[in-house]
Amino acid sequence: MPSPQSRATRWVVKSLIAPILNAETPIDIQRKRLDKLVGLIPLPRGVKTRALKIRGIPALWIDTKAKNHRVILFLHGGAFNIGSIQSHKEFAARVGQAANANVLLIDYRLAPEHPFPAGLDDAVSAYHWLGVQGYSSRNIAIVGDSAGGGLALSTAMRLRDGASDLPACLCLMSPWTDLTMSGESVKTNATTDIMLNPLWTRQLAHHYAGPDSLANPLASPHYGDFSGLPPIITHAADDEILLSDARRLTKKALAAGVDATLEEFSGVWHIWHTHAGFMPESKRAMKKIGAFIKRHTAEA
């Protein structure tokens, strides 16, 4: 039975957020509307932030009062074209609190101005910056939602291929891992997904990767090699168009010998975790994400 908060939030997502994600609306307008709507949510009590730049990349250090060396590199969603520190700072802070970790949230470069692999390059740079600050790979979890989830997976693949130390774990919430949109759920859930629509996602995929790189394994990690990756937890809603991406990545990871877990949730929607400040269903999912990060990362 959906909570009263879930019913109210479903209306907000369907009526206010989904219309922003429209293929006919210019990208700069989508960005402004999303930041204005979601960015108004206040940070959790006691959380402090500090703006910084990492090798030219705007970033936000989110201090959750975690008294340890555990840290999250958070890669925001937005189909590689929208989303920002402003839209995701409250969400990232909630993840940090759940995991008893501080958070580095970055404004990686976005398409169409900066197509693939610009965002990936920025994510890798931010990860290496954490190492320079003294954080061991054992302390670091990479977390991402939607496109950020796909980017988190691509980042781990790039690090592995470059013989870098890998993060302790990956947490992927409703990840977008196949820009070719070949998953079955793109069709079967097209009418049940209250937030995403295939026309919008296909358009923004082309902005990011162009027609020639949609199946590049570092743009669409679904087509990549999963061997040697760190433990992965993936969350997805059972009625979202990206459900197949979550299912297939977990299947491929397990086949490659990776410790991978998929949890599917009913009665919710794409990245419902963002409402963990007030929605019980989101709080429960966030608690699972936090427990996974605590289990796989070192505090010191």
TrEMBL record:
<dbReference type="Pfam" id="PF07859">
    <property type="entry name" value="Abhydrolase_3"/>
</dbReference>
<comment type="similarity">
    <text>Belongs to the 'GDXG' lipolytic enzyme family.</text>
</comment>
<feature type="domain" description="Alpha/beta hydrolase fold-3">
    <location>
        <begin position="72"/>
        <end position="273"/>
    </location>
</feature>
<dbReference type="InterPro" id="IPR013094">
    <property type="entry name" value="AB_hydrolase_3"/>
</dbReference>
<protein>
    <submittedName>
        <fullName>Alpha/beta hydrolase</fullName>
    </submittedName>
</protein>
<dbReference type="InterPro" id="IPR050300">
    <property type="entry name" value="GDXG_lipolytic_enzyme"/>
</dbReference>
<dbReference type="InterPro" id="IPR002168">
    <property type="entry name" value="Lipase_GDXG_HIS_AS"/>
</dbReference>
<dbReference type="InterPro" id="IPR029058">
    <property type="entry name" value="AB_hydrolase_fold"/>
</dbReference>
<dbReference type="GO" id="GO:0004806">
    <property type="term" value="F:triacylglycerol lipase activity"/>
</dbReference>
<keyword id="KW-0378">Hydrolase</keyword>
